[in-house]
């Protein structure tokens, strides 16, 4: 697999072994055949102290593979799996690309939206995350929140969009169609209470368009 002792120690969150290996010159930037390194291993398991030790030892927050292959960065996997916001903040403070993504095009903000983790989403937005980033399947963080009925993140996006972006209502997929396909009652209530649907833009869509979606 091409994994070093440091990579295994990071995957277990074994901080004592990490310190010992680093003090003997272990390279924190060797990646294995799956394009993961010690930092990704620690981030994926939510080991905040291990992540901090590796960052302070010079671990790269974003690794570009020579083949051009893309895999989710440590920030990306942390947004999917971690629970400690300080882990994400450490990665961001050490220069992690807030809008990095894997082959699926999903950014850390999209993963936070799918998990309905509003604290992660707010932190990522404060570090410049693109609220209108588009994944390979055409979804955005906002449509992800609607699709998976993630009410906390959806409310955050709609209440504070003006702090981060142009109106997300007018960017990306048509939100009414996404809502017709996936939204539960609470999601519909949140959307109805916002100003984003009170626009002439929606008059071009007929009732029949949404009746076909609902059926």
UniProtKB/TrEMBL annotation:
Gene3D superfamilies: Ankyrin repeat-containing domain (1.25.40.20). It comes from the Eukaryota. Pfam families: Ank, Ank_2. ANK repeats lie at residues 1-33, 70-103, 104-136. Keywords: ANK repeat, Repeat. The keyword NADP does not apply. This is Uncharacterized protein.
């Amino acid at each position: 697999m091409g994994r070093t002792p440091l990579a295994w120690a990071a995957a277990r969150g074994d901080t004592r072994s990490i310190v010992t290996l680093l003090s003997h010159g272990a390279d924190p930037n060797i990646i294995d055949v799956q394009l993961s390194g010690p930092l990704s291993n620690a981030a994926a398991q939510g080991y905040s102290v291990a992540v901090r030790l590796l960052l302070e030892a010079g671990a790269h927050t974003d690794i570009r593979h020579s083949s051009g292959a893309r895999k989710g960065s440590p920030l990306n996997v942390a947004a999917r799996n971690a629970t400690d916001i300080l882990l994400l903040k450490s990665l961001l403070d050490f220069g992690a690309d807030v809008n990095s993504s894997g082959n699926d095009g999903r950014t850390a903000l999209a993963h936070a939206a799918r998990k309905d983790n509003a604290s992660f989403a707010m932190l990522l937005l404060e570090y410049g995350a693109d609220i209108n980033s588009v994944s390979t399947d055409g979804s955005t963080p906002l449509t992800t929140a609607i699709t998976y009925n993630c009410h906390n993140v959806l409310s955050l996006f709609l209440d504070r969009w003006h702090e981060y972006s142009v109106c997300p209502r007018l960017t990306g997929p048509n939100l009414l169609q996404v809502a017709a396909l996936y939204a539960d009652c609470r999601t519909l209530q949140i959307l109805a209470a916002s100003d984003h649907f009170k626009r002439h833009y929606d008059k071009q869509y007929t009732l029949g368009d949404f009746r076909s979606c609902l059926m």
